[in-house]
Design brief:
Elements: H1 7-16, E1 20-24, H2 28-41, E2 45-50, H3 51-54, H4 59-71, E3 77-84, H5 87-96, E4 100-103, H6 110-126, E5 130-135, H7 146-151, H8 156-166, E6 170-173, H9 190-199, E7 204-206, H10 214-222, E8 225-230, H11 232-248, H12 253-274
Parallel strand pairs: 1-2, 1-8, 2-3, 3-4, 4-5, 5-6, 6-7, 7-8
Helix pairs in contact: 2-4, 2-12, 5-6, 6-8, 11-12
Length: about 280
């Protein structure tokens, strides 16, 4: 296996009711941990680079390392720009070797979101890159309220038109999740999700995977989710492990780097098994 787009894998996930996770990786060591988790379980996985990190001057060098890591892996691995903020950043990611990109135009008016998403899809498809866009809006967990989340839910009557106008490969939908840590227990509208899945001709994506219960994940997958983004929960696990280690012994840069790999490997394996991706490589 090698560095690949997840287009065919997400279609398989939709048919067989499992989900491929995207783990946001803030460093090459984190990417190594995710790759080891996927190889240990023979599972497909997506390495995500968040748009803000991608805009740093060193991003091309880091992306080159991640591409090489994926190319040498024994399982299918995608490198995806997460929440691309502009057409230019998505094109730059494609030029750097990303196999999938997400454009987040969810805060834009419908027509503008669709127009930019279509331009990115046209460019990506010309070189075999999968493209994700968002309809509705998944907000921040720190601002989360059930009423506010509902006001930004994906509207079923807009889904078919959006997919037709954009020609995207995956659709991120809003049905009750939020990014980051929640201040309230999230409530998922699974009836809405099931309706969106019936309407959508492309696999559905859930953002804001951290903080959900095991059953909520399983219910979302059964209702149509094929890709789940997770970041905050993995970061928090590493931070807790590092604090515990630092309290018990002298911590140096080498132990910190090793702990990043170990933490990401351990936690990502748990999610791969939970999402049903284990053995699907």
């Amino acid at each position: 296996m090698t560095l690949v787009s997840m287009k065919s894998m997400l279609s398989d996930a939709r048919e067989k009711h499992y989900a491929v996770p995207l783990f946001d990786v803030p460093s090459l060591n984190a990417a190594i941990g995710v790759t080891r988790a996927a190889e240990n379980l023979q599972a497909p996985v997506m390495l995500g680079m968040y748009d803000e990190w991608f805009q740093q001057p060193e991003s091309e060098a880091i992306c080159t390392g991640m591409c090489k890591l994926a190319q040498n892996a024994s399982v299918p691995i995608s490198l995806m720009l997460d929440h691309g903020s502009s057409y230019g950043n998505c094109i730059k990611a494609i030029r750097y070797g990303f196999t999938d990109v997400m454009f987040d135009g969810s805060a834009l008016p419908f027509e503008e979101n669709a127009s930019v998403s279509r331009m990115i899809a046209d460019a990506g498809h010309a070189v075999g890159v999968g493209v994700e866009a968002e309809l509705g809006h998944v907000g921040l967990g720190s601002d989360y309220s059930i009423a506010d989340a509902k006001s930004h839910f994906t509207q079923p009557d807009m889904v078919e038109r959006f997919i037709h106008q954009t020609d995207i490969d995956y659709l991120a939908v809003a049905f009750g999740t939020a990014h980051g840590a929640y201040k309230q227990t999230p409530q998922l509208d699974l009836d809405l999700l099931a309706e969106l899945n019936k309407i959508s001709s492309v696999p559905l994506v859930m953002h804001g995977g951290s903080g959900l219960s095991r059953q909520q994940f399983l219910d979302a997958i059964e209702s149509g989710i094929c890709k789940i983004n997770v970041a905050t929960a993995i970061f928090q696990d590493f931070e807790a492990r590092l604090a515990k280690q630092a309290a018990q012994q002298k911590t140096d840069i080498f132990t910190v780097q090793a702990e990043v790999i170990k933490s990401f490997t351990t936690v990502c394996m748990e999610y791969l098994e939970l999402f049903g991706a284990s053995g699907k490589a």
